[in-house]
Specification:
Two copies of one chain form a homodimer. Chain A is an alpha/beta fold and 294 residues long. The first copy, chain A, has a single domain, classed as Nitrilase/N-carbamoyl-D-aminoacid amidohydrolase (4-Layer Sandwich), CATH 3.60.110. Helices cover 25% and strands 28% of the residues of chain A. Chain A is built from six helices and 15 strands. In chain A, the strands form three sheets. Chain A has a six-stranded mixed beta sheet with strand order 5-4-3-2-1-15. Chain A has a six-stranded mixed beta sheet with strand order 6-7-8-10-13-14, with helices on one face. In chain A, strands 9-12-11 form a three-stranded antiparallel beta sheet. In chain A, helix 1 packs parallel to helix 2 and helix 4 runs parallel beside helix 5. The termini of chain A are far apart. At the A-B interface, helix 4 and helix 5 of A face helix 4 and helix 5 of B.
Chain lengths: 294, 294
Amino acid sequence: MKKLKIGLVQQSCCEEPQLNIEKSLQGIRKLAAQDAELIILQELHCTTYFCQTENTDNFDLAEEIPGPVTQQFAAVAKELAVVLVVSLFERRAAGLYHNTAVVLEKDGTIAGIYRKMHIPDDPGYYEKFYFTPGDLGFKPIVTSVGNLGVLVCWDQWYPEAARLMALAGADMLIYPTAIGYDPQDNDQEQQRQKESWLTIQRSHAIANGIPVISVNRVGYEADPSGNTAGTQFWGGSFVAGCQGEILKQAEAERDEVLCAEINLEQTEKVRRIWPFFRDRRIDQYDDLGKRFRD
Amino acid sequence: MKKLKIGLVQQSCCEEPQLNIEKSLQGIRKLAAQDAELIILQELHCTTYFCQTENTDNFDLAEEIPGPVTQQFAAVAKELAVVLVVSLFERRAAGLYHNTAVVLEKDGTIAGIYRKMHIPDDPGYYEKFYFTPGDLGFKPIVTSVGNLGVLVCWDQWYPEAARLMALAGADMLIYPTAIGYDPQDNDQEQQRQKESWLTIQRSHAIANGIPVISVNRVGYEADPSGNTAGTQFWGGSFVAGCQGEILKQAEAERDEVLCAEINLEQTEKVRRIWPFFRDRRIDQYDDLGKRFRD
């Protein structure tokens, strides 16, 4: 069996980026000590989830890639000989920013980057203000541990993104994410939302016969504007196998490092019994490129 | 609230088509008595799941649409003033057959048909032998109770099919299906498969913000060829709401009629908080029309 040990760092974040980075690095070290070869951080792990408000000062949090933060993580990737997936607020040019995942190889080089393609915008998630939609397409990043189908947060709701990664040979799907409850929603609505989040991501594993790894933020963050009740990030980071089965899942309420093993030979087996790729009606899918079929 | 009562008929089938039809009609009457306005039968409910073997004699089971079976169901639709979704083995011409869902209006007329687009072929599910892939595309059928996104069984594994129906204005997705355990699989594998089946269909509700109704066959059917251990159809027909939440689910092991209420106004509400349609990257989806991105 071609097994791969992977690690997930689920953490709460504070206002001081360097403290968040230290916490991430600590998690990475713990996971490397458990022999994880691929370690994944949550979305925008260096900062609080600053998109709760639209504030031009927050662009100060962005940096070029590579830049000092990339270098810090690259040094650790090299030191520990692990592949790292980090999630940064990228400054590409003045007035041009992205929500970008950076994949660092075991030698500390950049294996590739992915710029978040689907950008949300909801009360408390004002991402369209901060992030230009990605222009690199849906392309797996080739690494020594496999072809990584890295997507980010809002992308997780789009079967199209998962499919395009799988069709391009992704060995697994990876979602750094930052999603939580609106404290003003009732308990039933909160549970439905979290269950939806879990279900849609598990479904991408099923539809494509590849593992899914999702790493989510945890902890409560107040809304600096006071306009909303803030967000209670729901943690629950998880690893699902090729049939969508949950292999491991983190708690909802606390920092946690999670080590799990995935079996990369399972894709071959599952796609033999469920050969969904064989039967796609590509002659009839043109309208997927339409906004609406009206 | 714009509520709609729907009914599902989950049944085991025997070798005698007219007995299966009588059982379906009994179920329909029970559900109409509970004020269901839309009643859905499982895949190929008139017969056993004859696709367990490849046998040319089985083409005798097919009939034209409309034909005597369509007429029997149409008469009941009219008598009870319900919309019916039935699933027939369609003889379109000599040597040309389809797996076809027929939607009957409350006045007994045919509102539309859907010919199964994705055709499986696995040991025990030799559908490519029997059914030509549908040529009518993914188009909701307009009825007095809403636009029905009718798909059939294997289609349920394809997010593309669900999306195309939703983009064309489907108010709900409907899957008549016939799926079960291979008795030779161990319990863990059986449970993973059933859970996958449930999860992928719930995910279509989530991705598209519309209810999903799935009606599955139940009971054990031996393989006439003796080549396999037969199939234990796993029942578990269900109705999910617009966030993929299970509203009602039938048992795994017995005939059952299930009456559930869906709220068609929920789509508007859910799509406001989760505006996935707004953010689809249609500029980047061209490769969904490729077999593989190699």
